[in-house]
Design goal:
The complex is a heterodimer of chains A (125) and B (585). Chain A has 125 residues and is α/β, with parallel strands linked by helices. Chain A has one domain: TIM Barrel, CATH 3.20.20. In chain A, 26% of the residues lie in helices and 18% in strands. Chain A contains 4 helices and 5 strands; from the N terminus they run E-H-E-E-H-E-H-E-H. A 5-stranded parallel β-sheet of chain A has the order 1-5-4-3-2. The longest helix of chain A is centred in the middle third of the chain and has 12 residues. Chain A is globular. The two termini of chain A are 12 Å apart. With 585 residues, chain B is an alpha+beta fold. Chain B folds into 4 domains: 127 residues, Alpha-Beta Plaits (2-Layer Sandwich); 163 residues, Sulfite Reductase Hemoprotein, domain 1; 84 residues, Sulfite Reductase Hemoprotein, domain 2; 141 residues, Sulfite Reductase Hemoprotein, domain 1 (2-Layer Sandwich). Chain B has 18 helices and 21 strands. In chain B, the strands form 4 sheets. In chain B, strands 16, 17, 18, 19, 20 and 21 form a 6-stranded mixed β-sheet that branches. In chain B, strand 8 and strand 9 form a beta hairpin. The longest helix of chain B is centred in the N-terminal third of the chain and has 22 residues. Classes of the chains: A alpha/beta (125), B alpha+beta (585). At the A-B interface, helix 2, helix 3 and helix 4 of A face helix 1, helix 2 and helix 7 of B.
C-alpha cells in the first residue's frame, strides 16, 4: 500500500497550464459542505496552504473525500513542501503544486520511507 | 511493559532515518531553517538559550532498564557541549548568579518525558539512531501536534484502579503517531489518562483529560473532559461526556481534534490552544463535537472503533511480570529498628494491588541537583535497581521522580539501602522539597527568570526532615515563565518567574490544585500581590509556612488551612518578608 507515490506532483507552470478542468477553489476557512450540491459538476478542488504549518486543509480534504465522497482531483496549493506531501496523500490529496526550486528526487524518497502507518490511509479506511 | 512489534520497531527506525535525511538537507541548504524547524520540533529537537534541547518520548512514563542504560549512554557521551558553547553559557549564566550549569545528565519532565540540554545538533541523528535501538524516539514531543500521551505512574499496579489505562494509552499512542490530518494543529495538544480514583496525572489540566469509569451496569468507559491548560490563561477542562463506551474513545477524540483543527485560532499563538476556542464557543463547541462524532460513527462507519480483540492484543503486553513473590500478603513492614527506614517506608512506599508487592518512589529531589535531574551514572544505577528489584521496569512520575512499580515487600530494606547509597532515598515524597521546577532561565530560551536557583535555595533551607514532616504535604511548583512548564498554576504554592526591566522577579500564588484528592478540585492558585526578588523568595516561602504552622488546626494540611482562612494572612506575612523597597507591579 505504501512505497509508491500515487499523487501527481506539479510544477507551478503545469498547474497554471492545467485549465481544462471544472475547478472549485476552497479557502482554508471555507466549509467543504458548501460544495455538497455541486460536487458532481466539479472535476477538481484546489485547497490552500497559506503557510505549510496551517493544517486546516488536511481536515477539509478528509471531509471532502470521506464525508462527501468527492472522487475528482483534490489539489494542494500554496506553501507545499516535500516533507508534507506524504501526509497530504494520506488525507486524500491526489495532486500537489510544489514550491519552486525543490528537488523532486528528495520528494520521491519520502514516499518510500515508511513501510506502513498506524492509521489507515484515507483510501483504505 | 508494552512489547514492541516488528512493525513498531521498524517504524521507529524509519523515523530516525527520515530525521537524518531532513537534518542533512537542512545542513546543506536544501531545506530552509523555516521548513526544518517544525520537522525537528516534531522529533523533539528545540534550539534553546545556549544549545539544542532534545525531548525523548516516554510513552505513559514506562522505561525498561535497557532504555535507561541507553539514556545513560546518551547523557555520558552526547550531553557534552562544545567547550566554547559551554564557556559562553557559563559566563552568561554566571553573570546572573548561577553557580552550577550541569552537563552529562538527563532531566525528567512533568509529562514524564526525558530531556537533554547539551547535545550538539550535528550529533542529533546519531542520537535518534541510538534511541531507536531500544524503541525510543522523540516523535511528537514538541510541535503543534498531539503530544506524547501521559498516564498515572501507578497505572496497572495501583489498588485504587478501575481499569489499567496503559492499553488505551498505547492504542492512543499508535493512533496519534504521525496522524496525517493532525500534524499541524493550531497549537500543541496534550492528552492524559488515568484509570484510578485518585488523579495522579493532572487530567483536568490537559487539552483532553480521560478517566476510566464504570457505569451503573458495570461497563467500562471514559469520563471525557477537554480544554484544560496552563500558560497565560489557566483553564480547567470542561466535562464533555460523563460516560463514553471505551470502544469509541478514538472516534470521539478524532471529533474533538477535527473540530479544533478547523476552528481553533491561528492568528495569535497565545490564543490558539483548544481552551480558548472552547471559552469562546461554549456549548456550541460541544454541540459541534457531538455532531462530528455522530457523523464519524454513522456516516464514516466508526473507523476507529476499538475491537475487543485489539484491546486484548495490546493488553497482553501489560501482563504483570513473573515475579518470585511469596504468596502471602504483607501488611506491615518491619522497620528493622531503623527510624530512617521507617520514615522512608511512610513517605516513599505505596500500596500495590498485589498485597505482597509495593510501589517505591526514588526521590530525585535533593541537594546539589536540580529537581528531576539524573546524571549518567545515576541513570545506570536506576537501571540496576529496576533489574534487581522491579522486574526491569521503572516509571517517570508527573512530579519528576522515578517509581519502581514491582518491588517485593520482603526486599524493601535491601532496596532502601541501595537507594540510600545512590542518593535516591530522600524521604521527602510529597513534602515541600519534592517540588516541581522547569529548567528555567539557565537553559530555556523562553524563560523570563531562572527557576533552578530558587529551587536550590528552598531545598537548602529545608533540609531538616523533622521540620519538613511537621510542615507536611505541600505542592511547591516553580515555573520560569508564563508558559508554565513548572506547573505553578497548580501548586499549593506557585512561583512564577517574570521579567521586569531586565531583572528577575517572582510572583507567588497560593491555593492551586492539580486535581488530586488531597489538593481538591483542580484550580489555579491566586497571586498574592506584587512580585518578589530572587533573594526574597525563600524568606517569603518561610513566612507563608510559618503562618500556616501558627494558624493550622490539628492535623490540618497546608492547602486546607489556605482554603479555610483565605490568602490574607499569608499575603501579609509574605509582604512583611520583603527586604527590598522596590516593588514591582
Amino acid at each position: 500500500m505504501n512505497g509508491t507515490r500515487r499523487m501527481r506532483i506539479l510544477a507551478l507552470e503545469d498547474h497554471d497550464a492545467d485549465t481544462r478542468d471544472r475547478v472549485a477553489i476552497l479557502s482554508n476557512d471555507d466549509d467543504p459542505q458548501s460544495l455538497k450540491d455541486r460536487l458532481k459538476d466539479i472535476d477538481r478542488i484546489d485547497l490552500h496552504f497559506p503557510h505549510f504549518t496551517d493544517g486546516r486543509a488536511y481536515s477539509q480534504a478528509y471531509l471532502l473525500r470521506k464525508r462527501l465522497g468527492f472522487e475528482g482531483d483534490l489539489r494542494a496549493t500554496g506553501d507545499v513542501l516535500i516533507d508534507q506531501l506524504v501526509q497530504m496523500e494520506r488525507t486524500g490529496f491526489s495532486s500537489a503544486v510544489l514550491r519552486e526550486g525543490v528537488d523532486i528526487a528528495d520528494a520521491e524518497r519520502q514516499f518510500a520511507r515508511f513501510a506502513g502507518y498506524y492509521q489507515g490511509d484515507l483510501a483504505s479506511l | 511493559m508494552y512489547q514492541y512489534t516488528e512493525f513498531d520497531k521498524s517504524f521507529v527506525k524509519s523515523r530516525a532515518a527520515q530525521f537524518r535525511d531532513q537534518l542533512e538537507r537542512w545542513q546543506d541548504g536544501r531545506l530552509s531553517e523555516d521548513a526544518f524547524r517544525p520537522l525537528r520540533l516534531q522529533n523533539g529537537w528545540y534550539v534553546q538559550r545556549h544549545a539544542p534541547m532534545l525531548r525523548v518520548a516516554v510513552p505513559y512514563g514506562e522505561l525498561s532498564s535497557a532504555q535507561l542504560r541507553v539514556l545513560a549512554r546518551i547523557a555520558r557521551e552526547y550531553d557534552d557541549p562544545d567547550p566554547e558553547v559551554y564557556r559562553v553559557a557559563s559566563e552568561a549564566q554566571g553573570k546572573l548568579g548561577t553557580e552550577r550549569l550541569p552537563t552529562h545528565c538527563a532531566h525528567f519532565t512533568t509529562r514524564t518525558n526525558v530531556q537533554f540540554n547539551w547535545i550538539p545538533l550535528d550529533k542529533s541523528a546519531d542520537v535518534m539512531d541510538l534511541l531507536a535501538t531500544v524503541n525510543m524516539h522523540g516523535i511528537q514531543t514538541s510541535g503543534n501536534c498531539i503530544r506524547n500521551i501521559s498516564c498515572d505512574e501507578r497505572a496497572g499496579v495501583a489498588p485504587d484502579e478501575v481499569a489499567d489505562p496503559r492499553p488505551f494509552a498505547e492504542i492512543m499512542r499508535q493512533w496519534t503517531t504521525l496522524h496525517p490530518e493532525f500534524a499541524f494543529l493550531p497549537r500543541k495538544f496534550k492528552i492524559a489518562i488515568t484509570g484510578a480514583s485518585e488523579d495522579r496525572a493532572a487530567t483536568a489540566w490537559h487539552d483532553v483529560g480521560l478517566q476510566l469509569v464504570r457505569n451503573e451496569s458495570g461497563e467500562l468507559g471514559f469520563r471525557v473532559s477537554a480544554g484544560g491548560g496552563m500558560g497565560r490563561t489557566p483553564v480547567i477542562a470542561t466535562p464533555m461526556r460523563e460516560f463514553l463506551p471505551w470502544r469509541h474513545i478514538m472516534n470521539y477524540i478524532e471529533a474533538i481534534v477535527r473540530v479544533y483543527n478547523r476552528y481553533g485560532r491561528r492568528d495569535n499563538k497565545y490564543k490558539a490552544r483548544i481552551k480558548i476556542l472552547m471559552k469562546a464557543e461554549g456549548q456550541r463547541y460541544i454541540d459541534d463535537v457531538d455532531e462530528e462524532f455522530r457523523q464519524i460513527v454513522e456516516h464514516d462507519g466508526a473507523p476507529h472503533l476499538i475491537s475487543q480483540a485489539e484491546l486484548d492484543r495490546v493488553s497482553a503486553s501489560f501482563v504483570p511480570p513473573a515475579l518470585n513473590v511469596p504468596p502471602a500478603a504483607v501488611d506491615d513492614i518491619d522497620p528493622h529498628g531503623h527510624p530512617l527506614f521507617a520514615r522512608w517506608l511512610q513517605r516513599n512506599v505505596a500500596r500495590h494491588k498485589d498485597p505482597a508487592l509495593r510501589i517505591v518512589t526514588l526521590s530525585f529531589k535533593r541537594l546539589l541537583q536540580s529537581p528531576g535531574d539524573a546524571s549518567a551514572d545515576q541513570l545506570d544505577i536506576v537501571a540496576n535497581l529496576a533489574d534487581r528489584f522491579s522486574a526491569g521496569e521503572a516509571r517517570v512520575t508527573h512530579t519528576q521522580n522515578v517509581v519502581l512499580p514491582w518491588v517485593r515487600a520482603s526486599e524493601l530494606f535491601a532496596l532502601w539501602q541501595a537507594a540510600r547509597e545512590a542518593g535516591f532515598a530522600s524521604a521527602n515524597v510529597q513534602l515541600l522539597t519534592d517540588m516541581i521546577a522547569c529548567p528555567g532561565g539557565d537553559f530555556c530560551a523562553l524563560a523570563n527568570a531562572r527557576s533552578l536557583p530558587i529551587a536550590q535555595a528552598i531545598t537548602e533551607r529545608y533540609q531538616d526532615l523533622d521540620e519538613l514532616d511537621d510542615i507536611g504535604e505541600v505542592d511547591l511548583h516553580i515555573s520560569g515563565c508564563i508558559n508554565s512548564c513548572g506547573h505553578h498554576h497548580s501548586g499549593h504554592i506557585g512561583v512564577l518567574g517574570v521579567d521586569k526591566d531586565g531583572r528577575e522577579w517572582y510572583q507567588i500564588t497560593l491555593g492551586g490544585s492539580d486535581g488530586s484528592a488531597a489538593s481538591g478540585a483542580a484550580q489555579p492558585g491566586k497571586v498574592i500581590g506584587p512580585s518578589f526578588s530572587a533573594a526574597e523568595v525563600p524568606d517569603v516561602i518561610e513566612a507563608i509556612l510559618s503562618t500556616y504552622r501558627d494558624t493550622r488546626e490539628r492535623n490540618e494540611r497546608f492547602i486546607d488551612t489556605v482554603r479555610r482562612v483565605g490568602s490574607e494572612p499569608f499575603k501579609a506575612a509574605a509582604h512583611a518578608a520583603r527586604t527590598n523597597d522596590e516593588v514591582t507591579a
